[in-house]
């Protein structure tokens, strides 16, 4: 991309930068999880950008509120900045259960995907979780093919035993876990 990249821990007041992320994505395949098996469903589930004005689930306000919730619950937010602009953000909550961390949020701007930013954020969040005493990390992943393949390539495996509160919040997500 030619941009100067910086990775740093974000403070609560930095979380509003999520508004700068373009989350648009073309999605031609999603997965349905049945136990530990994934079943492909072709179609068109394209994801638009976050609504800058509304307050519904896919709005900037809701994303900022979610990030603040995770940080207030002890989560650590990391940002990837290109020439000072937030282009990726990830949050790990180190202690959702004894020895279990949650990768609670990971988004990379559409123009910066497939450049290693997501991998770097994921790796650094794994280290934070491990340093905090976690031996596993869980994630409820958007069931898009790109997202699920990303996590599988990072060493996650599909689990048929997701944390009940995560499953209740997002039953259509693909639930994964990884040993740290």
Automatic annotation (TrEMBL):
A Pfam family this chain is assigned to: Acetyltransf_10
InterPro entries recorded: Acyl_CoA_acyltransferase, GNAT_dom
Protein name as it appears in the record: N-acetyltransferase
SUPFAM superfamilies documented for this protein: Acyl-CoA N-acyltransferases (Nat)
Domain N-acetyltransferase: 5-180
Family annotation (Gene3D superfamilies): 3.40.630.30
């Amino acid at each position: 991309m030619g941009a100067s990249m910086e990775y740093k821990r974000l403070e609560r007041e930095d979380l509003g930068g999520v508004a700068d992320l373009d989350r648009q994505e073309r999605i031609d395949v999603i997965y349905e999880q049945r136990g530990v098996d994934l079943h492909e469903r072709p179609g068109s589930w394209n994801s638009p950008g976050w609504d800058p004005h509304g307050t519904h689930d896919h709005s900037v306000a809701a994303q900022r509120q979610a990030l603040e919730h995770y940080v207030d619950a002890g989560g650590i937010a990391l940002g990837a900045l290109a020439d000072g602009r937030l282009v990726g953000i990830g949050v790990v909550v180190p202690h959702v259960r004894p020895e279990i961390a949650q990768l609670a949020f990971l988004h990379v701007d559409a123009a910066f995907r497939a450049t290693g930013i997501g991998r770097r954020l994921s790796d650094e969040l794994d280290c934070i979780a491990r340093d905090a005493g976690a031996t596993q990390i869980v994630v409820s992943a958007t069931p898009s093919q790109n997202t699920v393949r990303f996590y599988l390539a990072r060493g996650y495996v599909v689990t048929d035993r997701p944390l009940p509160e995560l499953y209740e919040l997002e039953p259509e997500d693909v639930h994964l876990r990884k040993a740290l």
